[in-house]
Design goal:
InterPro entries: MoCofactor_Util/Proc, XdhC_CoxI, XdhC_Rossmann_dom. By secondary structure, this protein is an alpha/beta fold. Helix content is 34%, strand content 23%. Strand 6 and strand 7 (148-152) form a beta hairpin.
Length: 280
């Protein structure tokens, strides 16, 4: 089958924008930043598919592919097309699955996928977004013939506290791939808008200064272990230091989607689920 039969050029609308987290994009951009290569992006889904629109995969010049767009259904064929795109210096758009001319490439889900491939050179178009992501700032990837990609930092967990609950939560968050830091205290400058501050103390009098710093920060989620009674006392203490009800509404408690859990493992799963839900 000729190239013209499968498509010629990627032509995504200029005002289209997708949104992903840094971990879904940064490895591919980093792989292309030194020598360039071909960036592939999932730009259309006809039906249902487990990867999001905007998902990327890189074929760096002289290097191994980075990332994936499927569970192995199309990556081998993408590599062949990426080599041609790199040699020709022209973008290309492909259709896989439903409605595709590639009858020998089947998608078990029965859907159709549109994938854009563009040659990418090293330079500011990649360096700028990479610098933002490495500094945990929101970034935008804007390349010709691709939809714009808004990239947000991955949620980071600032875990403060003692005992098995803090340890279990930190282990779980790390295993799930979230940046996680165990801390003894907190300063407002330590926290960005993509940070969740999680306190695990049984001695609640130790929380006040930490929560004060968290409330002075842009943290997107603040929560502390304890019962409803402990939460009421916690808020009363913070109110007495000058915080109003609007600010205190940011302090969550009891934390976790599964209430009244006394098993550190269940509490860890429950709290992580609540934090992740807040990012959606």
């Amino acid at each position: 089958m000729t190239q013209d039969a499968v498509s010629a050029e990627a032509s995504a609308p200029a005002d289209t924008a997708f949104a992903l987290t840094a971990s879904e994009v940064e490895p591919a951009l980093a792989a292309l930043s030194e020598n360039g290569g071909v960036l592939t992006m999932l730009v259309g889904i006809d039906g249902a598919f487990y990867r999001p629109l905007g998902a990327v995969m890189a074929f760096p010049e002289g290097g191994a592919p980075v990332g994936s767009l499927s569970s192995g259904c199309i990556e081998g064929d993408l590599a062949l097309h990426a080599a041609e795109v790199l040699a020709e210096g022209r973008p290309r758009q492909l259709r896989y699955g439903r409605g595709s001319p590639y009858l020998d490439i089947r998608l078990p889900c029965g859907s159709g996928l549109d994938v854009a491939l563009v040659p990418v050179a090293p330079g500011a178009a990649l360096d700028g977004p990479l610098a933002d992501l490495r500094a945990r700032r929101p970034a935008r990837l804007s390349l010709p013939k691709l939809p714009k990609l808004e990239i947000r930092p991955d949620p980071r967990m600032a875990v403060i506290g003692t005992g098995p609950e803090a340890a279990a939560f930190a282990r779980l968050a790390q295993a799930a791939g979230y940046p996680t830091e165990r801390r003894d205290g907190l300063a407002p400058g330590d926290v960005d808008a993509a940070t969740a501050v999680v306190l695990f103390f049984h001695e609640h009098e130790r929380e006040t200064d930490i929560l004060d710093a968290a409330l002075r920060s842009p943290a997107f989620w603040i929560g502390a272990q304890g019962s409803r009674t402990a939460q009421a006392r916690r808020l009363d203490t913070l109110r007495a230091t000058g915080w109003d009800d609007a600010a205190l509404a940011r302090v969550r408690g009891p934390i976790g989607l599964i209430k009244n859990s006394r098993d550190p493992r269940v509490l860890a799963v429950s709290v992580l689920a609540e934090i992740v839900a807040a990012t959606q």
